[in-house]
UniProtKB/TrEMBL annotation:
<feature type="signal peptide">
    <location>
        <begin position="1"/>
        <end position="27"/>
    </location>
</feature>
<protein>
    <submittedName>
        <fullName>Uncharacterized protein</fullName>
    </submittedName>
</protein>
<dbReference type="InterPro" id="IPR036758">
    <property type="entry name" value="At5g01610-like"/>
</dbReference>
<keyword id="KW-0732">Signal</keyword>
<dbReference type="InterPro" id="IPR007493">
    <property type="entry name" value="DUF538"/>
</dbReference>
<dbReference type="Pfam" id="PF04398">
    <property type="entry name" value="DUF538"/>
</dbReference>
Amino acid sequence: MPSNYLTAIAFALCLLLLAAAAATATATAPTAYEVIQSYDFPVGILPKGITHYDLDTSSGKFNAYWNGSCSFSLEGSYQLKYKSKISGNIYKGKLTNLSGVSVKVLFLWLNIVEVRRNGDNLEFSVGIASAEFSLDNFLVCPQCGCGLNCNNLVENWKKGNLRSTPLLSSV
């Protein structure tokens, strides 16, 4: 075989090996939902549809991305809105410096700035006030546009598992 063919074959093999290594690295990277669980949070605090994320494990700084904004209602009483990019810092049981997530309270949209795990509850803070909810409310990821009422998602989940009795407190 002429040396040009050998060079071409060697080059093609190198490309195939690089592609295989990249595919393996991508396939083994945890999803955003797996990462959030590793920090002691349930997957349902993030809606479905995250396209990608980045995380600096040394500082806890993260960003999560969707294809556009995401909004939905939960149990008819809370409206949530996620911008196409949310960011903050994540630590075991605590999300701080959040930006890009807001909740409608009465007629005002308030930014959720912090989420803390408190035993079997999650406490959501909007700065001047906070509300606490059972972890059971976050076992399933809501979907943009329809929340948990998509394709009878709630029907397929145990009835009575959703609890919407927040404990409101000022900070």
